[in-house]
Amino acid sequence: MMMWFWSQYLNSESDGSNPYASPLRAENLSGLPLATVITAQIDPLRSEGQAYAERLREAGSLFRATNYKGVTHEFVDTVAVVDKAKQAVKEAAAGLQSGFMGNSMLNDQQRRSYSGKG
């Protein structure tokens, strides 16, 4: 099933080697804008999200990684009824807001919250 979704995402199979489609294939993840990595416990992409967070940590990039336990891949679609979905959407929105500010505009407290600790 994942192969079908992957084929819908790409224009051609060779696009899958492009780091913009597959960030884990990038040689260097340092110097990136801060990132928010949200995964679900029951998710076929969880291990890739966790591997991406680990690569960001190794590169010294600022990021926040959260794995939401007891939910599935599409859990954010249930924001009207699932508290963890509400929390994840708030986390994603805060991440975007901080990202639009840029790394250099973060205060010390914000920078600590993106130190790679979930």
Topology, pairings included?
Elements: H1 2-9, E1 35-42, H2 46-59, E2 63-72, H3 83-101, H4 108-113
Parallel strand pairs: 1-2
Radius of gyration: 15 Å
Side-by-side strand order of the widest sheet: 1-2
Cα distance spanning the termini: 29 Å
Structural class: alpha+beta
Notable traits:
4 helices, 118 residues, alpha+beta, single chain, two-stranded parallel ribbon
Overview of this structure, please?
This protein has 118 residues and is of the alpha+beta class. The chain has one domain (31-113). It has 4 helices and 2 strands; from the N terminus they run αβαβαα. It has helices spanning 2-9, 46-59, 83-101, 108-113; strands at 35-42, 63-72. Helix 2 (46-59) links the parallel strand 1 (35-42) and strand 2.
Short description:
With 118 residues, this protein is an alpha+beta fold. The protein has four helices and two strands; from the N terminus they run αβαβαα. Strands 1-2 form a two-stranded parallel ribbon.
